[in-house]
Structures are given as structure tokens and as C-alpha cells.
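This part of the workshop introduces the protein records we will be handling. An example says more than a description, so a record of this kind follows.
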Amino acid sequence: MKIPLLRVLSSASNILVGGQAVIEGVMMRVPGAYATAVRDPQGDIQIKRKDFVAITERSPFWKKPILRGMASLFEAMKIGMGTLQWSADIAIPLEEGEKEPGKISNFLTTVFSIALAILLFMIAPMWITTKLLMIEKEALMFNLVSGGFRILFFVVYLGLISLIKDVRRLFQYHGAEHRVVYNFESGKELTVKNAQSFPTQHPRCGTSFLFIVLLSAILVFALIDLIVIHFLGTISLPIRLLFHLPLIPFVSGIGYEVIKLTAKKNNLFFRALKQPGLWLQNITTREPEDEMVEVAITALKEAFGDEFDSVSGKKYVAEAIG
């Protein structure tokens, strides 16, 4: 069912804007649609817009706490992969005679990426904790230590990939995306000059969300381990993986709820909770060039389409993750 953008906007008490950096461009998502703007090798900005209404807006079931986070993460990953592929096609066109990767090749690449993530952020931290320390049956302590390794690996991973030239440029577009979102939320005229005056760190960034998920995993996995040990009387690395891996979407749903709370609450606890994510954005966002901010502005305006003038110039506090 297609829902007109104007109806989506008028029914919302606040305009939620999020986005994602892509290759030589930015994807911006607004209620009812998302648009991707990419600068091609000739210097022109190519645009692709698509109407889209989240399942949380169409189904009362998926609007429930935790479930909405799981659904939102799945949709964000699906949109993100699609826009990344499109941006690569525009920014890095095939040479004459070069064949475009087929569906099987793309599928294998995706599977390899998921397997590498599981190995690096799930198996390796738990294997190291198991081999170095004799705390396998101490659920909370085991997960605190393995969770600490997981966070360490995550930070090191971000630091290492940030050394790659193309990734640094992607992180510049990430900074451009954040500044344009800030500019829109402020109610100031959306211009390159105004956007460049805002920070590159945004509290609802996906980097902050991932950090919150890593923290949530420590507590959730510790509770699961307690239950497993109670019923089985023992636990091991294979058993942990058997119970932990299927719970990743659930942990993400909890992380989503926590990040929404940090956006609404401003007491000392929630400020401390969101601070590590902001620090991490010193790695995942970089100072953008004016041309990059121009691309991000184009994506946001195109996402809103004809409704942009009616929603701009007002102050918003967005809760989207971008």
C-alpha cells in the first residue's frame, strides 16, 4: 500500500530524518521516501528517489517496543545495501568490456562479510576469553570480559579502516550527512555555509547505535548464559554461539530502545551513555568538503520532493538513526 508523503508528514508530530554515507554521496531518508545523491566522475550529481513507508508505520505489530528496532534495523540494512550498490555503479562506472558482478557474486560477498563480522565480533572475543581466563561458568564476568574484547575489536577495526583513503572519503560524506541533518533540524536555511557550521557528531548516528548494541549484548548474553547454565549445568563456546547468534536481532531491538531514550533524556546517566558513541564518531566522521555538503543537501531536498518548502524553516528534534 502506497501512502502519500503529504499524509505521512501531516500525521507526524515531528519530522524524522536519517541518512547514510555512500560512495561519493549521501542517502537521506524522510517519512515516506528516501533519496540518494551521488557525484559522478564528470562532477555532476546523479539522484535516485524512492517512495518508502516503514513497516512500523504499516503494521501495529512491528510498532511495538524492541520489535520496531528489529524491523528498523532490517529495513535500514536492506536500503543501505541497495543504495551502496547504486552509488558504486554511478561513482565507479565499469570500464569498456568489464562485466558487472552477478547476483551470485554479490550474494557471496554479502555472506563473506557477515561471516567475517561473526568471526571478529562474536567468536574471537569469546574464544580469547575462554582460552585466557577460567571464568567460563561465571556468566556476568565472562560476558563483561568478552564484551570488552568485542568493543576493543570494534574500535580497532574502525581505526584501521579509517586509514584507507576511500574509507576516509566515505567518512567525510558521513560528516556531511550529519551536518545537513543538524542544519535541517535547526530550522535555519539549508545552505552549504549554514550546514558547515554544525558538528559532524550526531547523537542518533549509527555508530552510537552500534556501541549501545555492544553494551546491551553484555547484559542480555549474561542473562542467557545464566539460564543455560541453570538448565544444562554447563556451557561452552559452541553452546554460547548456539544461543547468542539468534539473539542478535533481539539485542539490536533493545539497543534501538536505549538510543531513543538517550535522545529524549538529558540527565547525567544518559549523557554518559551517549558520550562514547560521540567519541567514536571522531573516527567515523571527517571534515567534509563544501561539494560533499552540497550533495547531502541535494539528497535531503530530493527526498522531501515538493513538500520540502512546507517542512523546512522549523525546529525539529529527530530520533532517526543515520
Summary: The longest strand covers residues 33-39. The two ends are 25 Å apart (CA to CA).
